[in-house]
Amino acid sequence: MNAKILPKQDEEELLYRVALSFLPKIGGKTAAKLLAVFGNAKTLFHTPIHTLQQIEGIGAIRAKVFKDRRFLQAAEKELEFVQRKNIQVLIPEDKQYPYRLKECPDAPIVLYYKGSVELNSRVTVAVIGTRMHTEYGYKLTQELIAGLSAIPGIQIISGLAQGIDTIAHEAALRFELPTIGVLAHGLDTIYPFTNKGLASSMLSCGGLLTEFPSGTMPDKPNFPVRNRIVAGMSDVTVVVESDVKGGAMITAYLACNYNREVAAFPGRVTDSKSKGPNKLIQKQIAHLITSSKDLIQLMNWESSALPKPVKQPALPLLNKEEAQVLKFIHDNGPAHTDILLQHTGFNAAMLSGILLQLEIEGHILSLPGKMYKTTS
Q: E-strand spans in the chain?
């Protein structure tokens, strides 16, 4: 999907929109309010300070930032960057802008997107959870995505974080479902770094989306901000595993506030990673589901979409080294990386790459303490 080539007038307005998104203390709600009053961003930037400061919520200090040319200069550099990197810049007036997100009062006034699929899919499901998942969470996520692959036009959204997010994205790719990763940083980097290969694979069957410009690092405050996009873009948000606090819980509450459906898998009351979903269910924020079938019934997708047969994941052939490692783990049960190093004679970097590839392809599962086991 190519970066937009705009008529001069639209290109100029896009420049001012990006600059508006850079202004300090001017959030999405305030920016949307100002655009509604002035019609476009260019007019807003050329409005006298004394007029701007009379607007409720602006004042003298905020009004002055509209006259600081550094923000326009930064916007110019950003548009040069996205053009070079084939990144699409979306504003709410664009038909490509996620219409579900546009319904939210705090929707971003600018989005940066790189990918191969449209963002307005027929059905969109957010699958989220803890970074420190259990085997229970791993299996639930895999089975959920497998079952949802029967729904035509479905798209899987998550945050590209370690844990449940990564499992959801990987499973979507295995079942050839479009999957969108919403980032808490600019598109000039990938966090965590271990997901760089996954992110690259997603560009051919999905994409990466963010409201943060290049140069933005994955700082802690950015993640709750990112989560509202995950919630706002989705028809339903599914929480697989989470403690009572964490990003997945924030996303679930945001989805509820947006009047979107929330679903959660229950777990044992003694399991810390099930405390979050159990709480959501107990407080009637989330619907209890135990399978993809429950979610399909909850969303009434059975009556609106004839399911197609579930496709078996098309796993690539293993090379000699990958087959050697997989066979050892299969024959000997859960294996520690030190044992694998001794058995194979590979160096640590090579073994790490092989294990990562086998896990991405769904052959093995990582366990605590650098242990690995097969998934079958």
A: 88-90, 111-115, 123-128, 154-158, 179-182, 206-210, 236-239, 261-264, 287-288, 335-336, 364-367, 371-374
